[in-house]
Automatic annotation (TrEMBL):
Any Gene Ontology CC annotation: plasma membrane
Residue stretches spanning the membrane: 15-34, 216-236
One Pfam short name: SURF1
The name this protein goes by in its record: SURF1-like protein
CDD domains: SURF1 (cd06662)
Keyword terms, alphabetized: Cell membrane, Membrane, Transmembrane, Transmembrane helix
Transmembrane helix keyword on record: yes
Topology relative to the membrane: Multi-pass membrane protein
Species: Hypericibacter adhaerens
Family to which the UniProt record says this protein belongs: Belongs to the SURF1 family.
Localization per Swiss-Prot or TrEMBL: Cell membrane; Membrane
Length: 261
């Protein structure tokens, strides 16, 4: 009967390998803990967005109000669209189809103007004449999600106001483009809700409230690496005496040999 695998094995950790493995182990565990912290933060942000976007619609805040807590807040407004000054957010797609988002000034009853991302149109509908039914006239009520100004990312091209092509919402630049002063335009914009427009375009409801949340998988990955490292470290130092002696003999030069010159 063969002896068990563990018979005669001794656990003799080497200081150098142990220190190196310990440092890497601590780093891996720290990365896993960091991802768990990121997970808690992301889940809180997702819950906050969901609560704001599904709450009862508020009226558009007045001038000088506190902007904190407005991002993704469900809101409603009453006013008139200024279709003559609509702008186009380029490189927008819907179900894989390329197009634009139409951003139109919306004149509120209090005299201010609110920029409204009315939604998506296909490339061939950029000309307003090809979606005339959707160019609603007169006073109307709209609703959607308020959005705050964000910084341009390095992946986004520069806006091209001269060509009326925009790749990100730049409130100050858009305000100047439509010929208004900073005090005349709200310091946020509205992404229109999914209510259909006459003629079908623009298609609203383009807000993206969901966020990618892979932090749990990342945490599991880092913790798994830490466990694997610990197992390898243990097995490496858990040897039979003859295996350890064989390793030493292989690393040592034969007796009587002289180093080459």
């Amino acid at each position: 009967m063969s002896e068990p695998f563990y018979a005669g094995r001794l656990f003799r950790p080497k200081p150098g390998a142990t220190v190196a493995a310990g440092i890497v182990f601590v780093i891996l565990v720290a990365l896993g803990v960091w991802q768990l912290q990121r997970l808690a933060w992301k889940e809180g942000l997702i819950a906050e967005r969901h609560e704001r976007s599904t709450a009862e619609a508020i009226d558009i805040p007045g001038p000088g109000g506190d902007l904190a807590g407005l991002d993704f807040r469900h809101a409603k407004a009453l006013g008139r669209f200024d279709h003559a000054h609509e702008m186009y957010l380029a490189a927008r797609s819907m179900n894989g189809n390329p197009g634009y988002h139409v951003v139109t000034p919306f004149k509120l009853d209090d005299g201010r103007t609110l920029l409204v991302d009315r939604g998506w149109i296909p490339l061939e509908r950029k000309d307003p004449a090809k979606r005339a039914e959707g160019q609603v006239e007169g006073e109307i009520a709209i609703d959607g999600l308020l959005r705050l100004q964000r910084a341009k990312t390095w992946l986004e091209p520069d806006n091209q106001p001269k060509d009326n092509l925009w790749f990100w919402v730049d409130l100050p630049a858009m305000t100047a483009y439509v010929g208004l002063g900073p005090d005349q335009v709200a310091p946020f914009f509205l992404e229109a809700g999914p209510a259909p427009n006459p003629g079908g375009f623009p298609i609203g409801g383009q807000s993206r409230t969901e966020l990618p949340n892979d932090h749990l998988q990342y945490a599991i990955t880092w913790f798994s690496f830490a466990v694997i490292l610990a197992v390898i470290w243990f097995l490496y130092h858990w040897k039979k005496p003859e295996e350890e002696n064989a390793g030493r003999s292989a690393a040592s030069p034969p007796a009587g040999s002289r180093p080459a010159r």
